[in-house]
Design a protein that fits this description.
The complex is a heterodimer. Chain A is mostly helical. Chain A has five helices and no strands. Chain A has one domain: Four Helix Bundle (Hemerythrin (Met), subunit A) (Up-down Bundle), CATH 1.20.120. A two-stranded antiparallel ribbon of chain B has the order 1-2. Chain B folds into two domains: 81 residues, no CATH class; 462 residues, Cytochrome c oxidase-like, subunit I domain (Cytochrome C Oxidase, Chain A, Up-down Bundle). Chain B is an all-alpha fold. In chain B, helix 1 crosses helix 2 and helix 4 packs antiparallel against helix 9. Classes of the chains: A mainly alpha, B mainly alpha.
């Protein structure tokens, strides 16, 4: 096929890119909402609001506080880089990662208890492991992204003019947090 | 080719190490489903890294500038290229190959169905063939037009140099080959026999090929989601100056409407398949007989898969609307109402999924609402039909292969729409459900609505993509041939369906023998027609006469640039000054290039009314 194309010097004005990035991220989060929605629907359809009494309420409440706290530090990190405070940015990103790891550790403890109390084969256990697992997967990907951002920040990337990498990851982290705010009452409170 | 080889090597290494790691941790057999799951995931990552993901994404993660393929030779079709035109062609060729494979599978099915009793396969093998045919063709219908032509045309039609996220676009294409490989290698693990719908609980207990089906389709869902997201952002942010929403070409509108569905509801398909996968490998029990329920699967599945038929058909509507206005040399009839109808379809399509479940044990009180909502969707669809008719009405019709294909489309889609009413209606559906009536209806809407439009689009945009003209005489013969053969194949199936012949079964009573024999012979004639099509296209791509920039005298932007378009589509910034479909009017231009060295010829009144 005659596929060798004409080359041209014309380049489109790239000023649309920041707006495209933001809209793209928001649409991605909307799309993710549908995924969580599917699993939440499965939980309510198959078991309603039924939940066992043996749930470790204290641990779950603690994890909620940890994750909400990490969202605050993520927000502070983003704000810091927007004002070019690199030291603060690095500290708060590191704090976010530490809180995320603490949350993950708590989830592991929680799952080790749960596997004996309500194994995945039971009606509640199926939804429980599915939702916690899906959310933990998002926490892990968020932590990987945060670590990349932290390393790049230490290397001297990002500034008040160019902080999309931070902003995108922090938006994602807020979403992960928000997802937990729905999953936690679904599994523990209702 | 270096990257392709690297991708294959990385993929194989990924698969082997995934399986090996699983065996090392928990022991067992390499064909265990858990091992296959981890093998597939690592193979997919390895493949994506190898084909160019390392350079396109990995470099950024370590603080370097990301790189995409900069090749300008034919090799770029085998590389991680961000150029939307390259990706469009990659999609088109890959999915057409899948279409031909799916067609061959259906030929085997029609040989089996030509006479009652089992001849070349047994009942179980027939189910596996049926499932394979189903899912391959669904994949083609879902991504065919939007992946190939959406990627190629939408940026040009809105006056943009590329998509908003070129790397993401490349990623969403390079997810497709592993999907095809995963599906086609499922027979190694015993294939899957639960149909393309993969209804639980059968899909939780059947052979291990089902796990490859699940994994491949989850990857395909990811590809759809990323592709849809990209189209949305591109249309929202990258329109050329003057390209208001009211001047957007109708194909772009249809692509936008499709993308609204793909980027959101596809997650439910991925979710449903993940639940099945977890039931199979992780010990959860959503659909098992003791505590779970198959109805849950159907709800989640159809929440995606009903909108999915609009993901298949909406781009087809866009193509047809685009074609009728060009080939009747008239403005598009009721442009704004048509756009409204497209968006209404998007809204309604997510609240009608229950009509697939009238006989499956869904709560009774849901039957009425789902019936009414389903029938309501025929209103916007009818509006679009009226727009097509109004455009054709008293137009100066120019009978070329694309228009003949469009007439075939019109007839088929009309039959598909009318027969749909009986399936939307609870009373008749209870009788017709699970018969060949459903098969015939579905093929009339999807083959008639999506694949015919895909073929018409191949004809219409062939000169733009290759720079050469196909042979229109052979193309017209093909268009008539495929329309007649298609109708002869599927029309008898309505009759056997009404008389009670069950779908998805390889055998049937003597009473349906004559109609099935007729359908089978017609199906072989239908299959043979594609030889003519492929031959015409391949020969013309190499030896066809040069087409020039605008062989159809069309007004939309893609025809105002060279064929094929230059690397960044335009030689200077286009400015949109008029409506794209003012054919036969005062010759007011749709687009001008203020910075161009020599202004391109405007479409004059005489030319526009050829």
């Amino acid at each position: 096929m005659a596929m060798d194309v004409e080359r041209s010097e014309y380049r489109q004005d790239m000023s649309f890119q920041p707006r495209a990035n933001r809209i793209g991220m928001w649409l991605f989060l909307v799309s993710e909402t549908f995924l969580f929605g599917a699993f939440l629907a499965a939980r309510y359809y198959s078991t309603g609001t039924l939940r066992p009494e043996e749930l470790n309420q204290a641990l779950a409440l603690f994890l909620t506080v940890v994750l909400l706290g990490s969202s605050v530090s993520a927000y502070l990190a983003e704000t810091a880089i927007r004002f070019n405070h690199r030291r603060k940015f690095i500290i708060f990103t590191a704090v976010t990662i530490a809180l995320g790891l603490l949350f993950l550790g708590g989830v592991v403890v929680e799952l080790r208890e749960a596997i004996h109390l309500f194994p995945p084969g039971t009606p509640y256990g199926s939804s429980y492991f599915m939702l916690i697992g899906l959310h933990a997967f998002h926490v892990v990907t968020g932590l990987i992204a945060l670590s990349i951002v932290l390393r790049l920040g230490v290397m001297g990337h990002f500034s008040s003019k160019d902080y999309w990498g931070v902003e995108g990851v922090v938006k994602y982290w807020h979403f992960v947090d928000l997802a937990w705010v729905v999953i936690y009452p679904t599994l523990y409170l209702f | 080719m270096k990257y392709l080889v690297r991708a294959i090597v990385f993929g194989l290494v990924g698969y082997v190490s995934g399986v090996w790691l699983t065996l090392a941790v928990r022991g067992g057999d390499p064909t265990d489903e858990v091992a296959v799951v981890f093998g597939f995931i690592l193979a997919l990552l390895g493949w994506l890294a190898g084909i160019g993901g390392l350079e396109a994404f990995g470099r950024q993660w370590i603080g370097k500038t990301p790189k995409l393929s900069e090749d300008h030779t034919w090799r770029r079709y085998f590389q991680f290229s961000g150029d939307h035109k390259v990706i469009g062609i990659q999609y088109g060729v890959t999915l057409f190959a899948v279409l031909l494979i799916g067609g061959l599978v259906s030929m085997i099915m029609r040989i089996e169905l030509a006479a009652p009793g089992m001849s070349i396969v047994d009942l179980e093998e027939f189910n596996k063939l049926m499932s394979m045919h189903g899912i391959l063709m669904i994949a083609v219908a879902v991504a065919g037009i939007i992946g190939a032509f959406g990627n190629y045309l939408i940026p040009i039609q809105i006056g943009a140099a590329d998509m908003a996220f070129p790397r993401l676009n490349a990623l969403s294409f390079w997810l497709v080959p592993p999907v095809a490989i995963g599906l086609l290698s499922a027979p190694l693990l015993g294939s899957f026999d639960a149909g393309w719908t993969a209804y639980a609980p059968l899909s939780v207990t059947n052979d291990s090929g089902q796990i490859l089906f699940n994994l491949a389709l989850i990857a395909f869902g990811l590809s759809s989601i990323l592709g849809g997201l990209n189209i949305l952002v591109t249309v929202i942010t990258m329109r050329a100056p003057g390209m208001t929403w009211g001047r957007l070409p109708i194909f772009t509108w249809a692509g936008f409407a499709t993308a609204l569905l793909t980027f959101s509801v596809t997650q439910f398909f991925a979710g449903a398949l993940t639940l099945i996968t977890m039931d199979r490998v992780a010990g959860t029990n959503f659909f098992g007989p003791e505590v779970g329920t198959g109805i849950l699967y159907q709800h989640i599945f159809w929440f995606y898969s009903h909108p999915a038929v609009y993901i298949m058909v909406l781009p087809g509507l866009g193509v047809v609307l685009e074609l009728v206005t060009t080939f009747s040399r008239k403005p598009l009839f009721a442009y704004k109402t048509t756009v409204g109808a497209l968006l209404t379809i998007v809204g309604l399509s997510v609240v009608v999924w229950g009509h697939h479940m009238f006989t499956s044990g869904m709560a009774d009180f849901l039957h009425g609402p789902f019936m009414i909502l389903t029938e309501a969707i025929s209103i916007p669809t009818g509006v679009i039909f009226l727009s097509i008719m109004g455009t054709l009405w008293q137009g100066k019709l120019w009978f070329r292969a694309p228009l003949i294909m469009t007439f075939g489309w019109l007839f088929n889609f009309m039959i598909g729409g009318i027969t749909g009413i009986f399936l939307a209606d609870v009373a008749t559906d209870i009788y017709l459900h699970d018969t060949y009536f459903v098969v015939a209806h579905f093929h009339y809407t999807i083959v008639g609505g999506a694949i015919f439009a895909l073929l018409a689009a191949f004809f219409y945009w062939f000169p733009k993509v290759t720079g050469r003209m196909y042979n229109d005489k052979l193309g017209s013969i093909f268009a008539v041939w495929v329309t007649v053969a298609f109708n002869f194949t599927f029309m008898p199936l309505f009759w056997v369906g009404i008389n009670g012949m069950n779908r998805r079964v390889g055998d049937y009573p003597e009473a349906y023998a004559a109609a099935n024999k007729f359908a089978s012979i017609s199906a072989f004639i239908l299959g043979a027609s594609f030889l003519l099509f492929v031959g015409n296209m391949l020969w013309s791509a190499v030896k066809g006469p040069k087409a020039g920039a605008n062989p159809w005298n069309a007004r939309t932007l893609e025809w105002q640039v060279s064929s094929p378009p230059s690397h960044h589509n335009f030689l200077s910034q286009p400015v949109i000054v008029g409506h794209p479909y003012d054919y036969g009017g005062d010759g007011s231009p749709h687009v001008i290039f203020p910075d161009a060295e020599e202004p391109p010829d405007e479409v004059s009144l005489e030319e526009a009314s050829v």
